[in-house]
Design brief:
heterodimer; A: about 450 residues; alpha/beta; Rossmann fold; B: about 400 residues
Chain lengths: ~450, ~400
């Protein structure tokens, strides 16, 4: 079937520390933090000054480029600190939470009776617009453009990713309501993809085109799916929403409350008991991981090991993230590490590396770079883990020397940094692919967007 | 304190100084660095460039060892041709290997020594890390020069090759021409009378010239080019019991090297296979030319043109070039489609030069250098194909 997506190129990185399927409640954090850098490309204009009292859903700041795009507080409480960096850039807004959550009431809505304009305005007002992201450039969607389609990937293929079939189970009403609403925003279709053999709560939704996905990571990445279903051409825009964010939008429509509560997977070898917890966006990492984490020489990541952000134990869960990964730091030397046979690390070559012998084995990888930064040398290896119809190395080089014509021609509109996570993982020259792509996309957005 | 701790302290001490790259080069040789990821992916695959290069070197070791035995064997067999009657009994002897030790090892040492000194100097001046590219080049060079190449010539050529072939472009990964072949080409064009004679291929043949002990140092290609009879059997040619550059004679061991490169996914099987196919096609064309009586025995091209096409694959440097030099990812074609074209043309042009070049009957290194120059052009058209597809998709949409 043409509707189904099957890819062969890619790589499943199997790691120790898959989250067990049980959910525990953790106590409400004292402090929640919202970091504007989670919303890439947004310049925040602060509304809630230090000392302001906010309810969950009340605006903290808005986007300088479009003041309709509001960013809400996930909890009720008091803004205790606005942390600023150089040139007074807002780094984080810390909110001391009240003991019980109070919600701002946005009123219940019947999605099927709303017009496109009403849906849009409701998402603006309730602070749910930031959940809508766009391609090209992988940023919060520009509401002035009309998307040719909307994509929702409910198949998480990244290493140790939260199992969406499990975390979203029972959320059908919210999902349906959200889908009904957002489908008003596009002339085209809403494409939802689920795992080939899954009983995803998203597989029974009305008003969507369903795709079954199979194959190794990055089959769950939206770019991979877009490329197969309806590739982006120059001048076109598609919007992307994650299913866990659809639940928040759905709950808003059904109850009138902005409830940024998610089921978060605690994964990785440094957790003594990897499992799921429920948490509100911006929750403190130390509260989520309490009595469960080996903090000795540990890298804590908000998100997955490929594209997540490093956070400190005293840090906070990222706004969009539904996963915390903890793996050992690799800050030690390894004697003759460059030429001895390797059994405990993953490799796509067979250069005295033996992970090809044990494709099912789970590895406990650390953060060592396993080599030094070099110029691009090896060719042909990226293509094996890169399912998009592009030339990844040529594209990366064009992004490095910033030739806008080439960046555009080679497929720059169709990619997000996460699509280059696997090529970065296997890169023999240890080049920072995702950074190169991010910076290039920012330039493209500035010059061409 | 342990060695690990001592080295770590030294590294911290040298940090930011001019000598840091030189020290780090030695340090990272002993220990995989303690560098961790920051930003981007938090974990990385096991391979680095050192490991990749190391595999290529490993794949060449059989050729080197064989070359050391062969150095002695060709020397003694040139003196007493009765040794050729029973190759296997007379090949793996210590006397043969000793000639290898006194003749081949110095080539290896000079190649690595001079090349790495140049690399270190550039790393210190430019402030970049010492890159691994020369580990492979340094091994390739002694394998593709004639046994009697004077060491000073080799040293001059290595300096030229590393500086002009690589460092002026910015080091490993930036060069246009294969550095090892640049070195080989320099030797050939700077010292033509020495390098293209019929003497340098067998140890001591040069010194003995004009004396009653004179021996021949002719290669098979040399004999063919002069329309002479060739005394070696197909088995000899395939196994490599023939005169030639140090490490390129044994097609059998080169194929083992190719198997290692392909299995470890480090060498491109597309290039290797298509180079052999290209050479075979050119060989068949020439055979047909002879069969059609277009070229007759009186022609100076007759000897090589009449060589059966598959024999072309086993003699000269074709196999070595196709497996170890054409597959250089930096100077070769970088797209998978491009690799087919690139490899095919290398094989095709190699045999063409081999047959038509009267001065020096081996074309592989020239063919590879030529294709090095054209590789970016090939890639350009391959990539443009992808670009056109994207544009076309957009047009269909708007039409």
């Amino acid at each position: 079937m043409s509707k189904d997506i099957r890819i062969k190129k890619g790589l499943d990185i199997k790691l120790v520390g898959v989250a067990e399927k049980n959910i525990s409640e953790v106590k409400r954090s004292a402090i929640y933090a919202i970091k504007p850098e989670d919303f890439h490309g947004i310049i925040p204009k602060l509304v809630a000054k230090e000392g302001a009292e906010v309810k969950a859903g009340e605006v903290l700041f808005y986007s300088k480029s479009d003041e309709r795009i509001l960013f809400p507080s996930p909890v009720s409480g008091k803004v205790v600190e606005v942390i600023r960096g150089s040139r007074r850039k807002v780094i984080a807004i810390n909110i001391a939470a009240t003991a019980t959550q109070e919600y701002k009431d946005f009123g219940t809505k019947d999605a099927s009776n709303m017009s496109a304009e009403e849906v849009k305005n409701h998402l603006f007002a309730s602070g749910c617009w930031p959940f809508v992201k766009q391609r090209p450039f992988d940023v919060v969607a520009n509401p002035n453009q009309a998307p040719k389609a909307i994509f929702v990937s409910a198949y998480a293929s990244a290493p140790l990713a939260a199992d969406l079939d499990y975390t979203l189970a029972g959320k059908e009403p919210e999902l349906q309501s959200a889908i009904t609403a957002i489908s008003k925003l596009t002339e085209g279709k809403v494409h939802v993809s689920v795992g080939a053999n899954s009983n995803s709560p998203l597989s029974k939704l009305n008003g969507v085109e369903l795709h079954k996905v199979s194959g190794p990571h990055p089959s769950g990445n939206v770019s991979t799916q877009i490329a197969q279903i309806n590739p982006i051409n120059k001048g076109e825009v598609v919007w992307v929403i994650t299913p866990q964010d659809l639940v928040i939008i759905g709950e808003l429509l059904l109850t009138g409350k902005f409830n940024a509560t998610r089921t978060v997977a605690l994964t990785g070898s440094q957790f003594s008991k990897p499992h799921y917890v429920t948490a509100i966006a911006g929750a403190s990492v130390s509260d989520l991981t309490k009595d469960n984490l080996n903090t000795d020489n540990t890298r804590i990541i908000s998100g997955n090991v490929l594209s997540g952000k490093q956070v400190k134990e005293s840090g906070f869960l990222g706004f969009y993230d539904n996963q915390i990964t903890a793996i050992p730091e690799g800050n030690d030397y390894e004697f003759f590490g460059w030429n001895k046979p390797i059994f405990n690390k993953i490799s796509t070559s067979r250069a005295l590396t033996f992970s090809w012998l044990t494709p099912k084995k789970k590895y406990d990888l650390n953060t060592n770079t396993n080599g030094e930064h070099r110029a691009f040398v090896v060719t042909g290896s990226y293509e094996e883990v890169f399912p998009l119809d592009m030339y990844p190395m040529q594209l990366l080089k064009a992004f490095m020397y910033k030739d806008l014509d080439e960046m555009e021609a080679l497929g720059g509109y169709e990619i997000a940094p996460e699509d280059f996570a696997l090529t970065e993982f296997i890169c023999v020259s240890k080049q920072p692919h995702q950074k190169i792509i991010r910076e290039g996309l920012d330039l493209m957005r500035e010059e061409l967007g | 304190m342990s060695l690990k701790q001592n080295l770590h302290n030294l590294k911290e001490k040298y940090k930011g100084t001019k000598m840091a790259p030189a020290f780090n080069a030695i340090h990272t040789f002993l220990y995989l660095p303690n560098e961790v990821t920051h930003g981007g992916t938090h974990v990385k695959a096991a391979d680095d460039l050192k490991r990749t290069m190391n595999i290529v070197i490993l794949a060449m070791v059989p050729c080197l060892l064989f070359g050391m035995f062969n150095a002695g064997y060709q020397h003694y067999a040139a003196i007493d041709s009765s040794l050729r009657a029973d190759v296997l009994a007379n090949f793996f002897t210590f006397d043969n290997f000793w000639i290898g030790i006194i003749k081949v090892l110095p080539l290896v040492i000079v190649s690595y020594g001079v090349g790495l000194i140049v690399e270190f100097i550039f790393a210190v001046i430019k402030g970049h890390e010492v890159e691994e590219g020369y580990l492979v080049t340094g091994m390739l060079v002694p394998l593709i020069v004639p046994i009697d190449t004077p060491l000073w010539m080799l040293a001059v050529a290595v300096i030229f090759g590393v500086v002009i072939g690589k460092e002026v472009f910015g080091g490993t990964g930036m060069n246009i021409l294969n550095p090892a072949l640049t070195i080989r080409a320099f030797l050939f064009f700077a010292y033509p009378t020495w390098m293209s004679g019929d003497k340098v291929w067998v140890y001591d043949a040069v010194n003995r010239t004009g004396t009653p002990d004179a021996i021949s140092g002719e290669t098979i290609l040399g004999s063919y080019a002069q329309n002479q009879e060739v005394v070696y059997s197909t088995f000899d040619k395939f196994m490599g019991f023939i005169p030639g550059s140090v490490g390129e004679t044994s097609t059998f061991l080169i194929l083992i090297g190719a198997a290692i490169l392909i299995f470890t996914k480090i060498g491109s099987w597309r290039i290797i296979l298509s180079a052999f196919v290209g050479a075979a096609v050119m060989g068949i064309i020439f055979n047909q030319v002879v069969a059609a009586d277009i070229i007759t025995e009186s022609s100076k091209f007759y000897g090589l043109m009449n060589t059966v096409w598959w024999e072309h694959l086993t003699i000269g440097g074709l196999a070595f070039g196709a497996v170890f030099m054409a597959t250089d990812p930096v100077t070769g074609s970088q797209t998978n489609k491009g690799k087919w074209i690139y490899g095919f043309l290398i094989g095709f042009i190699s045999i063409m030069i081999r047959v038509f070049n009267p001065a020096y009957p081996e074309g592989v290194f020239l063919a590879i250098l030529l294709m090095n120059v054209f590789a970016p052009t090939i890639d350009h058209y391959v990539v443009q194909g992808n670009v056109q597809k994207r544009l076309k998709r957009a047009k269909v949409k708007t039409a």
